Amino acid sequence: MNIGGYQKLTLIDFPGTLATTVFTVGCNFRCPFCHNPELVLGAGQLASGTENKTEKEFFEFLKKRKGKLEGVCITGGEPTLQPDLIEFIKKVRALGFRIKLDTNGARPDILKKLLDLKLLDFVAMDIKNQPKRYAQTVGVRVDTERMQLSVDLIRSSRVDYEFRTTVVPGIHTEKDFLVIAKWLAGARAYYLQEYREDVILDKKLKQKTKGKKIDLEKIQNAISKNFGKMGIRR
């Protein structure tokens, strides 16, 4: 497992669970607004605010935290690109920890295996935009049927889940979220995440976002009826 670091304790990444967050290296998307560029580009650098980045060190840490921590959040980068993800999760499970997976949904085949093996307790999928504007948003060609498969797998599973979108002025419009709401209608939970510009993958994006705003509360009021739960994360 190519680990780019881990955060010893998180109270927010894994809802209702005291957890540690481990960051994997590498991603198949190139979202210009990504706040973990060192992980996306696969440079193997330590993720900001994290410690130690070898798998051996991570498991040594987990063994010391048995009975104190409850879960492990696996994020990235994109974890489903890791060839040994399933074996890694099995090892974490064997220590008694619950698992949350963050994913962009591009690998429904891996997601299905993990769900079939009952290795996940929570799944968070990033919804980058409405389907017709996906490639434009993530910077690469996208098979939107794969996105749909992942959405369907998550919604039909018995594990807890959420969908979420980082809302970027200059990239997203209010109309995009009306389409997203129809696409995900009936989902248990959907969150809007405020865009932060301190660290991003493509600094040229600042030219698009400069002077632009998008009203998250207005979007929430317009589409919240479509979801069991909806919120704004700042």
Q: How would a crystallographer describe the biggest sheet?
A: 8 strands, mixed
Relative helix content: 25-40%
User: Under the CATH scheme, which architecture would be assigned?
Assistant: Alpha-Beta Barrel
Q: Superfamily at the CATH H level?
A: Aldolase class I
Secondary-structure class: alpha/beta
CATH class: Alpha Beta
Q: Which stretches are low in confidence, meaning pLDDT under 50 for 5 or more residues running?
A: none
Mean pLDDT: 94
Q: What is the H-and-E element order? A: EEHHEHEHEHHEHEHHE
CATH topology: TIM Barrel
Q: Tell me the number of helical segments per DSSP (H or I, 4 or more residues long).
A: 9
Number of DSSP strands? 8
Topology:
Layout: E1 3-10, E2 19-24, H1 37-40, H2 55-64, E3 71-75, H3 85-94, E4 98-103, H4 108-116, E5 122-126, H5 134-138, H6 144-156, E6 160-167, H7 174-183, E7 189-194, H8 205-209, H9 216-223, E8 229-233
Parallel strand pairs: 2-3, 3-4, 4-5, 5-6, 6-7, 7-8
Antiparallel strand pairs: 1-2
